[in-house]
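Record 1 of the preview.
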Amino acid sequence: MSVLTDYTSEEQSLLMQGPRLGAIVVSAASPGRAADTFSEGVAAIQYAMSSRGEFLDNTLITSILYQLDQLAKADHRFVDYGKLAAAPDAKEHALAQLGQIADLLDRKSDPAEATGYKQWVLSAATAASQAAKEGGGFLGRGAVAVNDAEKSALAEIAASLRLP
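->
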């Protein structure tokens, strides 16, 4: 098992962004109101930060959560999620970075740890996809929790991470 400090500083930065990258793919696949995009970003980080118990046996995830917690306690300024998700080519860029994460984990982590991290990222993206109802007409009638574009984005995330 590895911990975050077993990686270079560049690799650490990439690994710490995993849940946010998954959420960006979802938000960019189905752009909505700014409030909905914000909700998706919040849902992903809330899932990631509250999942500690689910992944106690994965030292990489627990060390990432510890580092993110320390940054938050130090009032670290995180990048504006809405701007990231709305950037041109945000989805493609995030998918490419998720592919880099998969390559890194496949090279440097044991298979169970790598699969756990990848599943963690996909679960955070799933939480983002469920954060805001999509579509619908007058008063939101006909809106769905997860639309087809978001379902497709989740499949693309799984493919980029090389999850079955």
